[in-house]
Amino acid sequence: MTSLGEGEYALLDQSWHDAITPDAARRMLIAAAHAFADKGYHATTTRDIAARAGMSPAAVYIHYRSKEDLLFQISKVGHERSLKVLTAVQDPDPRDRMAKTVAAFARWHAEFRTTARVVQYELGSLSPEHHAVVAELRRKIETHVRQIVEDGVKAGSFETPDQNGTALAVLSLCIDVARWYRPDGKRTPEDIGTLYADLALRMLSKSV
Amino acid sequence: MTSLGEGEYALLDQSWHDAITPDAARRMLIAAAHAFADKGYHATTTRDIAARAGMSPAAVYIHYRSKEDLLFQISKVGHERSLKVLTAVQDPDPRDRMAKTVAAFARWHAEFRTTARVVQYELGSLSPEHHAVVAELRRKIETHVRQIVEDGVKAGSFETPDQNGTALAVLSLCIDVARWYRPDGKRTPEDIGTLYADLALRMLSKSV
DNA sequence: GTCTATAGCCCGATAGAC
DNA sequence: GTCTATCGGGCTATAGAC
């Protein structure tokens, strides 16, 4: 017995399928991701996680060294996926590249809100060694968005008084979707992506 | 002995001075706000709070019913202050009103990052009754920003395909400052306010 | 109003049977 | 690989002296 509907499990199972095996380890990780996203890492007990995965508390330690190791796996794979969402966009035009990138990144933070919340809000619960690993991934994400802004300014497509500040703001806007998005709200993840792509282009527009 | 410099205490003491008395209660609350902002509510122990305030663990319960009550006081006063920052802005021109409002709200989330982090990221740790109180304050904050957008569109100053969505994005942008801002970074709270006011106006600009 | 001491509970992690 | 049982420790909150 679990506290999730079959649909939700199926969706998440799909998204973690290639990253985590065997099956029991993946079930445990998905249970942990939901618990961490719902209540936060420190408010979640290993008993919560085990109960959600339909196993005994001791089963956690068959596949993971510790509760923190479980957090690290979620955070690492989550960061890798969100980075891949960015780098998958390939478009020669800076405006189109920015629009597609922002749409995809904002959409990801809504669609995979559970993982995104753990990725964005539980960094401080990682061990120093594990934090260093995801910090490197975060640096790549920031650099990637800065580069798109820089390319657009050089190509004459964008105009801004502060390139890095605006790149930071665009990233920040997308990331914060994980905080406020609710699956039962009016806007779909795709709606949010479309709106945010427009807003990002306005933020970098040449005419104000 | 505390883990904060005198300057930091003086600043925060100033900001909580009229809201919380007596002195020991205020010291405890400031210690709790810093601990909650640094490590999160659930990772913070009453021993942490007491140690930061330079008192014994039992002293927490002289002025507060529970650890959660301490969180509620911080969250309630913090929400009230951030709402006041918004409503203090009075300007007849919609563009100027929006610019000043965003500058002040973004700046507040940087300048009072400690309180802001508790306000924005510990809602889920409040009891249902206490959560309802701050939820009402949050509704007022959202409504206030929506109203400025609506006024600007009616006056012909703003143009947007989605009024509520853009109002939400502007709020979200300001709130997320509490997540990424570091006092030792390059940008001052005032810099951030200035940049964000410009970005908000671009997001609502008539010419794209 | 503040302290020391501790009750009572729950946590993360492990031992050992199957 | 999964279970039941449990250890050792840290947690919130309270009792009672001063």
From TrEMBL, chains A, B:
GO molecular function: DNA-binding transcription factor activity; transcription cis-regulatory region binding
PROSITE patterns: HTH_TETR_2 (PS50977)
Annotated DNA-binding residue span(s): 45-64
Pfam families: TetR_C_24, TetR_N
Keyword vocabulary terms for this entry: DNA-binding
Domain HTH tetR-type: 22-82
Bilayer-crossing regions: none
SUPFAM superfamilies in UniProt: Homeodomain-like (SSF46689), Tetracyclin repressor-like, C-terminal domain (SSF48498)
InterPro entries attached to this UniProt entry: Homeodomain-like_sf (IPR009057), HTH-type_TetR-like_transc_reg (IPR050109), HTH_TetR (IPR001647), KstR2_TetR_C (IPR041490), Tet_transcr_reg_TetR-rel_C_sf (IPR036271)
PANTHER family the record matches: HTH-TYPE TRANSCRIPTIONAL REGULATOR RUTR (PTHR30055), HTH-TYPE TRANSCRIPTIONAL REPRESSOR BDCR (PTHR30055:SF200)
Annotated protein name in UniProt: TetR/AcrR family transcriptional regulator
Organism taxonomic ancestry: Bacteria, Bacillati, Actinomycetota, Actinomycetes, Pseudonocardiales
